[in-house]
Every structure is written in C-alpha cells, then in structure tokens.
Amino acid sequence: MSSNTDQEVNERGARLVLTVRTSDGAPRPKRSWTLPEGGWEELLRIAASEILEFMLGVQVGELPESASCNSTEMTAMVGLAGELSGVLSLRCPAAAAATLASKMLGTDIAPTDAYTRDALGEISNVIAGTLKAKVPGLDDACLLSTPTIVCGGDYHLFSISNSTSVSVALQFEGQPLWITLDLHR
C-alpha cells in the first residue's frame, strides 16, 4: 500500500504532527511526537554531541557564529524515509574528517583515504539513528538510507522546497563541524 505523508513542523519544533494518507487519499490516524524543549535543533545538538563524545572521545563545543561554513570539503548525507522524511548532513573540512576517522579507528588516517569517507558516513548514520531513537515512537516509523559522501569544495546542497531546515555548528579540538537536518513536508 503506498502512502502520502503530510507533515507539519511547528516553527519552534516542539511538536511534529503527521497525517499519513493511503493510495486512495483516505487519512490514517495521526501520529504525533513530542520533542524536547528546544525542538529539532536541540535534539540534533544532543544526538551529535553524545555520539562524538561517546564514539570518538572528543569534547564538543559550540562553534562561534563568526565561523564560515565555506571551508567544507566533505559532506556525509543520510536520508530519512517513512513517516518522517528528510536528510541529515554532516559537513566539515577534510582535515576534520580525517581527525574523526583517526579517532574512530585508533590510527592516523589521511584526509584522502577511503577510511575517512567511510568513517564520516558511519558517524552521520549513527547521529541520524540516535536522533530518531530520541523521539518516542519515531524509531520504528522512520528508516535510514546508506550514507552518501561528497568530496570537494565546489558544490552547493539544496533541499527540496517546502522543507524545514535546522542546523548546529559544533567544534572539536578546534575543528569545525556543521550538522543540518532538512525535514520535508
């Protein structure tokens, strides 16, 4: 049975209400999830910080607002599908990606190494999984895609129109990291 999903994301992110429709257009019962205070942005910050600190043993802090996102050379993207659809993306300079990979694997990894790409994809996947697990009832209603990695600095990411986007800018060991959640309505 195919379905269409109407999604409403409260601007404060405090509540997500979905109307799932069957192929004949009839609405199924609504599902709603209560997000913690601070909405999606706070949930994204918590999930990312927990994973980076637990998996990699790095202290995570806020990135100053003056830091530019123009220096990203690697982006990992994980799709969300089901009753919640969208994309989680993790962007950082290649050197930051190599540091994350080195921490994850316990050995020095070069920025151009395939292990760097794999590690960045896995980290973004675990952050996305942690994010959806923190919203009661969402874990089983939303699936994750295999991560996709984009390398290089000459690209722009665009989400489809009619989406809500939240971002957090973090740093670890003086290196920047931007994590964005684009939710499609």
Description:
The chain has 185 residues and is of the alpha+beta class. It has one domain: Chemotaxis protein chec. The chain is 27% helix and 35% strand. The radius of gyration is 17 Å and the shape is globular. The relative contact order is 0.22.
Measured as a percent range, the helix fraction is 25-40%
What's the SSE pattern? EEEHEEEHHEEEE
CATH architecture: 3-Layer(aba) Sandwich
CATH topology-level name:
Chemotaxis protein chec
The whole-angstrom Rg is 17 Å
Number of strands: 10
Beta-strand percent range: 35-45%
Q: What is the makeup of the main sheet? A: 7 strands, antiparallel
Overall, the morphology is: globular
The SS-based structural class is alpha+beta
What does the average pLDDT come to? 82
Task: Provide the CATH top-level class.
Answer: Alpha Beta
Number of distinct helices: 3
Uncertain residue ranges: 1-16
Gist?
The protein is α+β, with helices and mostly antiparallel strands and 185 residues long. 27% of the residues lie in helices and 35% in strands. The radius of gyration is 17 Å and the shape is globular.
List key phrases describing it.
single chain, 185 residues, alpha+beta, Chemotaxis protein chec, 7-stranded antiparallel sheet, 3 helices, 10 strands, 27% helix, 35% strand, globular
